[in-house]
């Protein structure tokens, strides 16, 4: 603890504090520069996040052929047959007649009165309907398990059935097992005598030779005619030529299933891409043209203490402005993205679909939009209806040369290159400062700040030593003056 100013009567602490303010000016500038670097780093990372979002949207949208093969499917009788497009390329009209629905096999116990608890291991060999592969299933029954516990374990196992207790028309409660899959040919076999005896004790019927459970109702395949051709299916839901059919009832006349291009769904995919692209270039252009307010440097801690939160917010809004103004990485990246979109795609197969303007997408008339896209929806709808796969190729054509690549492929390549450059400069949230340029600048500034803070401690100590020496000199002068006055007074 220092006690100074007793001899001089001066506020030494205040004097040293004022002197240190001047000495701290270089440190404040370094701290402010560090803050600028951190803001720049964060701005770059924000841009990279936006570019990554665009890249992901392209991959999930115009990058996928299935998005350009979306179909609307209609049924002339939805109570009998419904359908949806899975991967259908052409528009079709199909006549389907349902002759027989698929059913699952059921197995019924005669009575539940003979169930006795006790630990046992049930072993089965199971073949599903329509399959030739057999799997082994083991169910462990505990010493004190009830019948409900047994049913729960059956349902939770890989046996492939659902068990439940049901009362028949005479009021007798039975255990009924229903196969989880429809169709003919499935078998459930007791794999050992213990399992055979347990199932028989419950009243299930089993073949004495094969040990197979005998169904009360056998499994049944679905039988349908499609365009006059008869086919058998193990399930009431099946896929043919990219269309998934679900049959509900036997029909007396053919049901017509029609597919057409789902223009709205494909249009939505393209609109999402255009909107996201516009959002990205708008934000990047905003950063590139943002005004730089050099008279608003980052605030020091002392300055913040003298301001309200609103004042700090308004000040820092201007201090952060323009930190990426005219940035070379963003400028070159944006120029490349525009080139990717506007350059025609080569290939004879793309006649009439070589560039975005061919499908109704062009740049806005307002030059202040700096390359934002606009959509002529009527024209785009016409082109989607005309040839949706040609539009897909416009986005996704592949080739060795730049001109052979589709617009989305070019754009993703450019986005990845741009994101890599930004990462090299600003890193990611997982990067250490040694791994990117701004981080190295921050590390260098930290070292200089620490060294300067050590120097300030030495300077402050020197000031106090000097003022202490002054105090001591004043003290001695005061003592000498008092002594002389005492002498002069004594002489009188």
Automatic annotation (TrEMBL):
GO terms for cellular component: bacterial-type flagellum filament cap; bacterial-type flagellum hook; extracellular region. Residues 219-479 form the Flagellar hook-associated protein 2 C-terminal domain. It comes from the Bacteria. Keywords: Bacterial flagellum, Cell projection, Cilium, Coiled coil, Flagellum, Secreted. Its main location: secreted. The keyword Coiled coil applies. InterPro entries: Flagellin_hook_IN_motif (IPR010810), FliD (IPR040026), FliD_C (IPR010809), FliD_N (IPR003481). It is found in: Secreted; Bacterial flagellum. The keyword Coiled coil applies. GO terms for biological process: bacterial-type flagellum-dependent cell motility; cell adhesion. Residues 8-105 form the Flagellar hook-associated protein 2 N-terminal domain. Belongs to the FliD family. Required for morphogenesis and for the elongation of the flagellar filament by facilitating polymerization of the flagellin monomers at the tip of growing filament. Forms a capping structure, which prevents flagellin subunits (transported through the central channel of the flagellum) from leaking out without polymerization at the distal end. NCBIfam families: PRK07737.1. Homopentamer. This is Flagellar hook-associated protein 2. It comes from Aeribacillus pallidus.
